[in-house]
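Worked example

This section walks through a single chain of length 194. The input is the sequence exactly as stored; nothing has been trimmed or padded.
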Amino acid sequence: MRLTQSVHIHLKEVLKAGDSALDATAGNGHDSLHMAELIGPLGTLVAIDLQAKAIENTRNKLASKDYLERSKLLKGNHADVLKQLNGTFKAIVFNLGYRPGSDQKLITEVDSTIGALNEVPRLLAPNGILLVTTYRAHKGGLPESIAVEDWMRKQEQSDGWFVHKIEPNVIQSKTTHDNLPPILWVASPTLSIC
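Given that input, the structure is written out below as tokens.
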């Protein structure tokens, strides 16, 4: 099973009609669309991306299903935007790396990603879920993935969060930096998730 499918399965288990959801890296809008469908017309979706094209793609995807009224699209660095947000979200999703189909030099970066993750405990509902997919094979991806793992371990050890790491099996003898598989982190302050 692809990690993107796993993200959507976890979202379906947690998100209900009327919930609030946050897509911290909107990209091409796939996660935003799935969350908007799950939360229904009484729910609220916030989707963030640094790239205008990502916001446009997400807007178009949501508009195609008449989900714009339940959605708020914000252009900016996810760390800066999350610092300004208030309220709580039942699900928060990060899909790190670069937007498929875009300039691969435009990537999420360690400092902004950790800055954004540091806002999650304030924004995530106690019975909510955080889903973070890290891609290690592109330039900058491995250090970001290591930083996310460190952040997750702190949440688990210091703050008592439930944290689960999903990493596709690889043949170690053939694994190089260029073909390291992505990792999905599933975390929650109170939900046991395995």
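What to look for: The two ends are 15 Å apart (CA to CA).
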